[in-house]
Amino acid sequence: MFKTAIKGSLYPISSRMDSLIDSLDRLNQTFDKQEIRIDAIDGRLDDHDRILAHHDEKLTNLSKEVFKKND
Predict the structure, then answer these.
(1) Largest CA distance in the chain
(2) DSSP letter string over 12-35?
């Protein structure tokens, strides 16, 4: 009888803990998805940085050619 009383009084706490654990699991899944998205965006930014560096180099070379021809 004593065990039944203890189990009955602990049930709401146990239920809330289960709910908290489920919420934390969902939060972790959301963080994992966001990390994947951030990594993809970071990769795209790296690609854009390389393209911009290449364009900057082309503009510098073009500028050198134009000013050399005007001398």
Answers:
(1) 104
(2) HHHHHHHHHHHHHHHHHHHHHHHH
Interatomic CA distance for residues 60 and 71, integer angstroms: 17
Residue with tokens 């049930």: 11
% of the chain with per-residue pLDDT over 70: 92
* Per-residue tokens: 2: 């004593």
Question: Is the entire prediction scored with pTM above 0.85?
Answer: no
Per residue in 21-42, pLDDT (tens digit) is: 999 999 999 999 999 999 999 9
